[in-house]
Model the fold of this input.
Amino acid sequence: MIFKKLTCKNASELVSRSLDGNIGLLERLRLRAHLKVCAACSNFVRQMQFMRKAIGKHPLFKDDDKL
Done:
């Protein structure tokens, strides 16, 4: 089976969804393949992970607080 190459735009959408745990196996494999060859998207992943971690520590964004 040949995978359709992801664009950086598609990859960034998958990164966002993957951080919420909402992608399937095929999407995850395609994303991993893209991240191995794309430094910009790999950097985007690190930035998103950092931001989620930092925001998660802020008192206004605790998981147990409901808006």
Notes: Residues 8-60 form one domain.
